[in-house]
Amino acid sequence: KQEVTQIPAALSVPEGENLVLNCSFTDSAIYNLQWFRQDPGKGLTSLLLIQSSQREQTSGRLNASLDKSSGRSTLYIAASQPGDSATYLCAVLNAGGTSYGKLTFGQGTILTVHP
Amino acid sequence: KAGVTQTPRYLIKTRGQQVTLSCSPISGHRSVSWYQQTPGQGLQFLFEYFSETQRNKGNFPGRFSGRQFSNSRSEMNVSTLELGDSALYLCASSLRQGVEEKLFFGSGTQLSVL
After folding, report:
1. Preferred mutation among A6, A33, A54, A100 to probe B, highest tally of B CBs within 10 A
2. Residues B82-114: pLDDT tens digits?
3. Torsional sign, CA A46, A40, B22, B91
4. Pick from A46, A43, A83, A47: which is nearest to A62 by CA?
């Protein structure tokens, strides 16, 4: 059974800092890994999707890496801003099935960026 | 293009009642998935529908059911509500493009069971 763990559970940083969020998963047989952002009481916004054959993806100030063999992914946020404050969720899609909607989520990292 | 639309946004029910939640996917998306989010358990997969057929189901009791219509709109139903069913219910739709299948989530329905 796939299990996803995110560290740290919460993080508070001053504006402008570069930061790293960590995600680990127990079963390396994944199809892809996604990072999402969730604002309080809202739905999820997809930030980055990394296919199992890829090593990293970049979008603006965000960079996500994937090391499938060690079961780890990191989300790097450069030059953090108060608007980045949210919960960041990591989710994996297991390989080998025909269902593409069944993601296994971590518990999330609550990020607070203070001015 | 409109995003995933979930209705209602908020719902208050009492124990023993039943509830139906609705999800309209992004136009052209044929796959719809449902998730339950609680502070204690986080996000848990309920079920996935594709072309009106349930493609996968999570580990939830039979009180939780769903269906998908020919226009890809989906509903989920919870019967005999329990206090523990209080949660944010999220719907996601997806469209496979090449090897990539990205999920797009709605804003959710916040269900409170009293």
Report:
1. A100
2. 999 999 999 999 877 666 678 899 999 999 999
3. positive
4. A47
